[in-house]
Amino acid sequence: MLYEDKCSMADSCWLKALGGMLLALSSEGDIIYLTENVIQQLGIQQLDLIGRSVFDYCHPCDQNELRGILSLRRDGELERSCFLRFKSTLAGHGRINNNKKNDNYKVMNCSGRIVMATASNVRLNCSLEDYFHEEHELESDSKGSKVVKSSTSHFLVLVCDPIPHPSKVELALDSHTFVTNHTLDMNFSYVDEKMCQFFGYTMEDLKYRSAYEFHHAQDNESILKSYKTMITKGQIQTPPYRFLAKQGGYAWVQTQATVVSVSNQYFRSQAVVCIHTRLSDIEERDQIFSISQC
């Protein structure tokens, strides 16, 4: 009874702490645990999902990536992170969409780790090498070769956070948050005045120029990877990166980017709306990292 009370308390704390949901998967992708707030995130009841395969609810184009994070890696890395699109029955303003003909998908920022498990315990801290040596036994196959026979299984535990649509984010009262608009190739088309004031640029300094010109060179690879994912899946959240300030220095920034449709009476196109959160003040003001800062 005490154990059940503790589990109930833990579940309640998780729900309060998470903006998204907690998801636990077997090595085959079966949903073995899911927090109740999945109804707020995807519009699907918790009991309708537990015991089902996660592949039934994951976008077909993301399933190979999902298999990859479910698998063990020979380098021993247990941490996992990716962006996955899950089926959602939610329409605008959180309403349930009863139209079964069209599958809607919601992008979730998923991060967590592999958990090794035995019949008697779950081990959160162990290396993959120890796991193979301690938890697997060798047997001979039909050709006499030694093969690994698993006596245990592993699980994947993820925290899945939604990426809010720009239309649902309140920016007016937050001095650390600002918005920019871009073409699909990430050229600036609009810059929030707060961003210009903080980094020292004018609108003319940034408009029609590529956002990549203003990223620290050491961060460009990870940012480029994030934006490629955005083009495929529609939304991303970047890792923290350095945005260069005019006349020298940089500030750490994290960006949520969303592809949106833009239309008028003549044509319809796509654009990118970025919501940036400033994580630091300007550092290394006396250092010039790019000609774009001059």
UniProtKB/TrEMBL annotation:
Coiled-coil region: none
GO molecular function: DNA-binding transcription factor activity, RNA polymerase II-specific; RNA polymerase II transcription regulatory region sequence-specific DNA binding
Organism superkingdom: Eukaryota
InterPro entries: PAS, PAS-like_dom_sf, PAS_fold, PAS_fold_3
Protein localization: Nucleus
CDD domains the record matches: PAS
Protein name: PAS domain-containing protein
Organism: Daphnia galeata
